[in-house]
Amino acid sequence: MSELSLVQAVNAALKRAMSEDAAVIILGEDVGIDGGVFRATEGLFKQFGEQRVLDTPLAEASIAGVSIGLAAQGFRPVAEIQFTGFAYSCIDQMLNHASRLRSRTRGRLTCPMVLRSPAGGGIKAPEHHSESPEAMFAHIPGIKAVMPSSPARAYGLLLSAIRDPDPVVFLEPTRLYRAARGEVADDGAGMPLGRCVTLRQGREVTIVSWGAMIKEALEAAEQLAADNIEAEVIDVATLKPLDTATILESVGRTGRLVIVYEAPMSCGFGAEIAARVAGRAITSLLAPIERVTGYDTMMPYLRTEAHYMPNTVAIVAAARRSMAYA
Amino acid sequence: MSELSLVQAVNAALKRAMSEDAAVIILGEDVGIDGGVFRATEGLFKQFGEQRVLDTPLAEASIAGVSIGLAAQGFRPVAEIQFTGFAYSCIDQMLNHASRLRSRTRGRLTCPMVLRSPAGGGIKAPEHHSESPEAMFAHIPGIKAVMPSSPARAYGLLLSAIRDPDPVVFLEPTRLYRAARGEVADDGAGMPLGRCVTLRQGREVTIVSWGAMIKEALEAAEQLAADNIEAEVIDVATLKPLDTATILESVGRTGRLVIVYEAPMSCGFGAEIAARVAGRAITSLLAPIERVTGYDTMMPYLRTEAHYMPNTVAIVAAARRSMAYA
Amino acid sequence: MNRVLDIDGKLVGTMPEFACHPDEVLQLYRALVLTRTFDAKSIALQRTGRLGTYASSLGQEAVSVGAAAAMRPDDVFVPSFREHGGQLWRGVTLKELFLYWGGDERGNDFAGPREDFPICVPVGSHPPHAVGVALAFRLRGEPRASVCVLGDGATSKGDFAEALNMAGVWQVPAVFLINSNAWAISVPRARQSAAETLAQKAVAAGIPGEQVDGNDVIAVRAVTERALARARQGRGPSLIEAVCFRLCDHTTSDDASRYRDDAEVSRHWPAEPLMRLRNFLTAAGHWDKAKEEALLHECSKAVEQAAEDYLATPPQPVAANFDYAYAELPAELAEQRETAIVIAQGAA
Amino acid sequence: MNRVLDIDGKLVGTMPEFACHPDEVLQLYRALVLTRTFDAKSIALQRTGRLGTYASSLGQEAVSVGAAAAMRPDDVFVPSFREHGGQLWRGVTLKELFLYWGGDERGNDFAGPREDFPICVPVGSHPPHAVGVALAFRLRGEPRASVCVLGDGATSKGDFAEALNMAGVWQVPAVFLINSNAWAISVPRARQSAAETLAQKAVAAGIPGEQVDGNDVIAVRAVTERALARARQGRGPSLIEAVCFRLCDHTTSDDASRYRDDAEVSRHWPAEPLMRLRNFLTAAGHWDKAKEEALLHECSKAVEQAAEDYLATPPQPVAANFDYAYAELPAELAEQRETAIVIAQGAA
Ligand SMILES: Cc1ncc(C[n+]2csc(CCOP(=O)(O)OP(=O)(O)O)c2C)c(N)n1
Ligand SMILES: Cc1ncc(C[n+]2csc(CCOP(=O)(O)OP(=O)(O)O)c2C)c(N)n1
Ligand SMILES: [Mg+2]
Ligand SMILES: [Mg+2]
User: Fold this and answer.
1) Out of B127, B266, B314, whose CB is closest to C348?
2) B219 touches C at CB < 8 Å
3) What span, in angstroms and rounded, lies between the C-alpha atoms of C284 and C287?
4) CA–CA dist D197, C252 (Å, integer)
5) Which secondary-structure segment (H or E) carries C313?
6) Model confidence band, residue D344 (pLDDT cutoffs 50, 70, 90)
7) B38: closest CA among B193, B178, B197?
8) N-term to C-term CA, chain B
9) I want to staple C13 with a disulfide (CB 3.0 to 4.6 A). Which of A35, A275, C4, D133 is the partner?
10) Mean pLDDT per segment of 10 residues, for chain C of length 348 residues?
11) How many CB atoms within 10 Å of residue B19?
12) Under a CB-based contact definition with an 8 Å cutoff, are residues D79 and D149 in contact?
């Protein structure tokens, strides 16, 4: 056990995966000597060499496309897209090829690749460096979409993503890269994909979120507890496939649901969660489903970006609205 | 008034828009002499010449990108992407540039462009020719997303889309291109964007859909009527911005909602509709929100694609489930 | 422009080694004829509603047949959608091709070339895959190569330029072959790029590029063999532009008369690949009317049999589309699978 | 490689017409100095937490200054994110640049060049915009052109290849200028492409391409002027590779010492653009210590004043982000706007 930041946990998982499986290789912009702009691949180039850590030319679509060819040949490429704002160029390759290779060939060719990318805002970065496109990837059949919210989950989920036989889009909350620190046992144990993680138990209201917003969700739960409102906090962790059962079970107990995400509200991933609950747990709902989200505008430049990010105040207010509803 | 097929209505709207505004130009693959693979631009090259109807090289990202430059210069480019399966390459340009040009420059530069593309399945076409990516575009702030379901609406909404000062993604239901015929008055009258259209009144259950699925929704309503179940059928028409009020008002009366769409269920646009209703009309809901959708798999090749498409039987069943719920 | 046989089948270039063995040339000829036979049958099936939209390779048979013939069995073919000849040569069966064009995914589950890529419909999006495959070979130190065939229109797609550039940087064993058939549906070559040749697209990536007469199967095979030899020797990727002409409509849903003169098409007929090779073989005394008839008979028999087998193949069960979505069926999809089965049974 | 002045400021090429007027050359020199002064101040502000991540143009000032100087006011500049010098020349104010880099969209609402594009952060995604702008000029028959500046890394992006190819097909009045500064963050030029020069990327699009010494502002302006003249005459687009060196870190968040030797950087200092022009002007008797000090003083005064104005500018109201989302605020967004305002007021 050692205390690691989230980005160090990512680095440890990558190192572990490369050590245990020679088929695991890394490619992306500046992932080599530079170790990635956030240092996620730090030291890997030195340890594993240029045959397994490849700096690519500046071409996102082909970073994804080349990974597909490598994966079809039995490699387990872990491609880094420097920021999710530049991952939109990969959607065509991920949706039209990576996600379908298995189904299209009836299992003859498969695509065990991981597309890693830092996501989310709040780091006062330039435009395009604070995107939250998870819903777009979670809409793609054949793909798995994962977003960790702690060093331990980043480590365990990334290992599972790399070992997964199908393409996984792994979005890392940039805001937590250094801010989130925690004990991580570098024991090579993966965490199962497709399971939500209940981070805090509560009887009265269920707060569901993922990625960096888990921080605010937990803070909100703390504040609510001060008023004797017991909030349950669930980290979705794997957006696709979604562990609906855990969410339904919780809402079944609390009857109140607050969904928190930083992406633009409309068609954000939280909409799918709300739809599933409204489709299966309507009777247990004691109040309208609350969504605390980013707005349907572009993420403002850094000077005013704070206004865009959902905050604890808003989450607490939503939970209170839900509690007050009768 | 003359009876036109949906694709003829699109053609008439394009012709009208080009006649009334010299800034309107068309670009895309095979939109010239060939008149587009579905003939949507038939005759326009002949009538308006190569200065206003431009065949492009095969490069979707740049068809969108070049349109942005043209729009910033005051043209009103109407770009055709031959099939939405190839429009994924445009997402980067549409999301990172078209949708933000106005906000990014605080109104100095704008992007009055339309990205047209045939969408949806059911025409026994090859792979990638039957996609329904509307939710991805409806998730993009700064964009408007429209999907007509009849010749008259195709005509009126396309005219409004072309006249709109902001970027509009206009998805045309391929399955209805020739199948849907109806009276269209080529009078240059646009239909307002951002409004749902109630196609059939009903007191007992609200069926919401858009695009080609409106056909099945209306058939289902017919069958339900035979059993004295009065279904209201709403065509969303404009997905972004969404006319939430009309849907809430209807559900407020019926208390039952069935959402029908052919895209993969998870994170499909219907999830957003469900989330809004669950957030604002929960008390009026007498039954769980039903979704009749495509599956979270790739669209099968033509031989089995029929199994993928939501059908009338499934819609009727969902409505009955909803009615039976107590 | 590389050429071995002229339009009349006369030797105008130096005969490559392999072509000195009549059997080798006869095999190439047989492949061209089989491809054209398959082509005719596919169109007939489509016209009678028994096949989906089909992309004919009429007049372009020599491109992918020549390329495939230059490959080794363990190389990997990364085709576009008009390389029936190359796929057949690689061991994809006629029945598999019919299944694919009939809208059945099983047509991509090749019993033969297990590592070959399936047909790629999104134009120009597959070159990166060929780079990835070639990179895999380089990283494993295997003497193998990938061969990617794409159209002239595909050269305008960004993915192609990105892939070519990456292939150059990494010096991977990949060969990119352009089926330069003068048209991209209704867009003529001249409106696709101002580049005088498409072979010169290689200059942007710093790799070698050359043109070959795409109607001369011997030349195509020879040029591809040279490129593959370079690739295997670790001397990097290359680009080949095989210049030919699309004698057919773009696909069965296209009507080329809308945008090009029949006269232009007629002008190109004399250059088509089968006749010149037949003339060459006849002149060399390796071919005659009887052999020709026997071959035509053999090919149509094979094609008819395959068509029958295809038509007799029951469609896949509804479940198939779910069972191949992921290695393991996620819970949420298992539910949808059940629903789909119920709905398919007409109930709901 | 086009060059007018060598490293020491000695004439080694033919002096272009404009450079025979000392004032023109002095203006170029002033622009280089102003740009470097702005650069230093920006870094200082960033280091003290008063500016966001900033991309320095140290050692690359001559590229965009030379390009902008070759343009006419009504041409349109389509920059990447390292062309401060060119933007300043075009009339973007120092304060606007500070606002932009300080994270305020108003920095893109240029009071001066209203039609110029704002900085483009997604590398290589703006060349298509320059093609669209140039196409607009051609369609309207206006004698205007667009000038797109991009980096060496950007040449690997598919959008660039697509745009260059389209520009060639349509023969639009666009000039693409590569700030070829040897690095793309940590990726050296040699790992970006196997192409010997980036100018040769033009060959793929069938348009002219040439190299110019990017540290020689006179040469850059001259070459760009020639390209613009061709464009205006309807003779189509062209590509220029301005070879220079990134003497600075990639941005203020980068530490170049992780991936390149200081020695390599030092080796390139003697070639930097300011000194050689100063030497040239001094030798020609147009410059001296006093003038230099006066200029430095003038530039830093202007920059300091602009920085003060920037720092004194209150941030935009919360509503701004909603009010510019669409021409007309949709109902659903109006609600969100209210919510945002309430939340911003600390309540909720
Ligand atoms: C990315 C993409 N855009 C558009 C299409 C529609 N389409 C299919 S084939 C084709 C033309 C392709 O031309 P070319 O690359 O020359 O190949 P050819 O058909 O001539 O063999 C087009 C536009 C597609 N399949 N993929
Ligand atoms: C599409 C895209 N991918 C990645 C990045 C992150 N990034 C910013 S600048 C840069 C390197 C650009 O190199 P080059 O084009 O040579 O321009 P330079 O920075 O050297 O001026 C990268 C990778 C980006 N901004 N956009
Ligand atoms: Mg072609
Ligand atoms: Mg650079």
Assistant:
1) B314
2) no
3) 8
4) 44
5) none
6) confident
7) B178
8) 47
9) C4
10) 96 95 97 98 98 98 98 98 98 98 98 98 98 98 98 98 98 98 98 98 98 98 98 98 98 97 97 98 97 98 98 97 98 96 77
11) 12
12) yes
Rounded distance from Cα D230 to ligand 1 centre (Å): 33
- Please state the φ and ψ torsions of residue C2, each to the nearest 5 degrees: -65, 130
pLDDT more than 70, % of chain B: 100
Give the Cα separation of C128 and A68 in Å (integer).
8
* ipTM passes above 0.95: yes
Q: Is the CB of D153 under 6 A from ligand 2?
A: yes
Put simply, the chain C residues between 232 and 291 with a CB less than 8 A from any chain D CB are 236
Rounded Cα distance between C337 and C343, Å, is: 10
SS3 D33: helix
- Cα–Cα distance between B65 and D159 in angstroms, integer? 8
Active site residue D29: no
Q: What is residue C346's predicted lDDT score, i.e. its pLDDT?
A: 76
Number of Cβ within 10 Å of residue B228's Cβ equals 7
Nearest to C148 by CA among C98, C79, C238: C79
Q: Which of D250, D276, D278, D310 is catalytic?
A: D250
The rounded Å distance from CA C156 to ligand 3 centre is 11
Q: Residue ranges of the alpha helices (H) in chain C?
A: 22-47, 61-70, 84-90, 94-101, 127-140, 158-170, 189-192, 201-205, 217-232, 262-268, 273-283, 289-311, 320-323, 331-344
Q: CA-CA distance, B24 to B163, in Å (whole number)?
A: 9
Instruction: Provide the shortest C-alpha distance from residue C319 to chain B (in Å).
Output: 10
The neighbour count for residue B48, using CB atoms within 10 Å, is 19
Which tokens in the block code for residue B177?
């291109």
Span B109-128, pLDDT tens digits: 999 999 999 999 999 999 99
- Which residues face C162 on adjacent strands? none
Any C CB within 8 A of D126 CB: no
Mark yes or no for CB contact A85/B96 under 8 Å.
yes
pLDDT tens for each residue of A69-95: 999 999 999 999 999 999 999 999 999
Q: Which amino acid is at A166?
A: D
pLDDT single digits (tens) A27-52: 999 999 999 999 999 999 999 999 99
Instruction: Indicate whether residue D187 lines ligand 2 (CB < 6 A).
Output: no
CB C146 near ligand 1, within 6 Å: no
Q: Which of B233, B272, B258 is nearest to B325 (CA)?
A: B258
At what angle are helices D273-283 and D22-47 packed, to 10 degrees?
150
Mutate to test the interface with A, among B266, B284, B295 (most CBs of A within 10 A): B266
Is D201 in CB contact (< 8 Å) with chain C? yes
Tokens linked to C54:
């089909």
Atom of ligand 2 nearest to the CA of D154: 15
Structure-token pair, residue A244:
């609906």
- The whole-angstrom separation of Cα D142 and Cα D134 is 10
Report the predicted TM-score, pTM, of the whole model to 2 decimal places.
0.98
Whether C196 and chain D come into contact, CB under 8 Å, resolves to: yes
Strand pairing category for A205-209 and A231-235: parallel
- Residue D214 at interface with chain C, using a CB cutoff of 8 Å: no
Query: What distance in Å separates residue B86's CA from the closest CA in chain D?
Result: 15
| pLDDT, tens digit (0-9, with 9 covering 90-100), for B116-171 | 999 999 999 999 999 999 999 999 999 999 999 999 999 999 999 999 999 999 99
Question: For residues D239 and C194, what is the distance between their CA atoms, to the nearest angstrom?
Answer: 14
CB-CB under 8 Å, A194 with C166: no
Print the SS3 string covering B34-52. Answer: CCCCCCCCCCHHHHHCCCC
Residue-wise burial string across C128-143, b where 16 or more C-beta atoms lie within 10 A, e elsewhere: bbbbbbbbbbbbeeee
